[in-house]
Amino acid sequence: MGISLGVHVGQQFIAMDDLRALWRRLDDAGVDWISTWDHFYEAPWQDGEGAHFEAVATLGALAAETKRARIGCLVFYVGYRNPALLAKAATTLDHISDGRFELGLGAGWHIQEASAYGYVFPDIGTRLDMLDEAAEIVRRMLTEERTTLSGKHFQVDDATCRPRPVQARMPIWIGGRGEKRTLEIAARRADGWNAAYVSAEEFHRLSQVLDHWCEEDGRDPAEIRRAANLAFYMSMDELGLARQREKFRHDWGAGAARTEAGALICTPSEGLDRVMALVDAGADEVNIALRAPWDENALSAWLEEVIPAVRRERG
Description:
- By secondary structure, this protein is an alpha/beta fold.
- 45% of the residues lie in helices and 18% in strands.
- It has helices at residues 16-29, 55-65, 83-96, 111-116, 124-143, 182-189, 200-217, 238-252, 256-259, 268-280, 296-314, and strands spanning 4-9, 33-36, 70-73, 76-77, 101-106, 147-150, 155-159, 172-175, 192-196, 225-232, 263-264, 285-290.
- The strands form 2 sheets. It has an 8-stranded parallel β-barrel with strand order 1-2-3-5-8-9-10-12, surrounded by 6 helices.
- Helix 7 packs parallel to helix 10 (268-280).
- The longest helix has 20 residues, at 124-143.
- The radius of gyration is 19 Å and the shape is globular.
């Protein structure tokens, strides 16, 4: 498989009709991947007043509106849904999409929405334990005739998941940058690992950490695909970039400094260089992450110029 170029679309501050039109546009343009995220409030957190759609229902519409692109969620927080139920939802989405769904799992971070909606949001160590258990249950539900597991956080008792997914093996992605636990869980449980908003240099370093954990677990590191998300703030000229820099600071607030290394606050030609740097750093997949509103001319340039240029160079 060559380099995968996708679009991660946050389902916030945008009407459903506009989202559906965007998905069709992306699919027609030949992107390899389209994903949502799993939030109830805007991300990053602002005030909880922003319009935002739930992930599983949104994915049902995404699956029905597209024909070609692989689809998924980067990533489901395992504390919001029982993992057996999530396996059932994933199977349903795989059938709606005719075998194009891939399941992303993560340990979560958005304490504001979790607290507002009445979900317990434990410490990160506990959430990572939950991620590990959930990933095991999901994999077993998708592959075993019947699944029983009595864990500390989740339980299933002689559970079935019928019908089976369309795919013989639905890929499971683990998202996150934690070196001691997240990447170790990815090495044991995942078919793919996703890192959001990091530089090419940091992506390469984290990928080497993942290789280490694969070796510790006796697994071939080449079995795990590696993906990077880049925040999309591109524009066509300096005046547009000034507006995008202001939007970036507004969107990310206190997190702007931590995120900027993985943000495309640049022109399309510079964006091409950034993608190629990530590919050289070991990325198998590169996704742009859209937060409405974005520069439409820059998005068109990405689809019509940058993606073809990357494919010409790397296939």
